[in-house]
Amino acid sequence: MDLSKIKAAIVDDDVIKGNDIRKALEFNGIRNIIVVRSQEKLWEQIYHSEEQIDLIVTDMQYPLNEGEPVDEEAGFKLIERMEKEKTDIPVIVCSSLNYRIPNILGSVWYNRLNDLEFNFKEVLGHLSR
After folding, report:
1. Burial of 101 per CB tally in 10 Å (0-12, 13-18, 19+)
2. If we measure between CA atoms, which residue out of 80, 112, 69 comes closest to residue 94?
């Protein structure tokens, strides 16, 4: 799959982490990237944007709606809603905890000392399969 043609959405309320993820995706050839800070904004992009979202990279804890506190289960709620609504967009979880979640493209453990570019490359390799 030509990663340069993918539109990715990063869902994370941590600006530094969001930038690190953006850099890792860009390193791997994905250039069309948006960053949203809540699930509400992601769903707006999925349902109302003219450009289709091809990949979602999500943290597990962030606000569901703008101005609300962090929801500890936000990532799980996103994956559950996507399955319920049959939203067929590959998901990569990128969290400071190392999750093993079925039915997603993969997980990347976020750590400032970790090689995010390589770890994303490994998971993105599953897109072409």
Report:
1. middle
2. 112
Token reading at 107: 């997980």
- What stretches of the chain show up as alpha helix (H) in DSSP? 15-27, 39-48, 74-84, 116-124
Phi-psi region of 86 (alpha: psi -120 to 50; beta: other; left: phi over 0): left
Residue carrying structure tokens 């493209």: 105
| 45: nearest Cα among 72, 7, 96 | 7
Q: pLDDT by residue (tens digit) across 26-71?
A: 999 999 999 999 999 999 999 999 999 999 999 999 999 999 999 9
For the entire predicted model, the pTM comes to 0.95
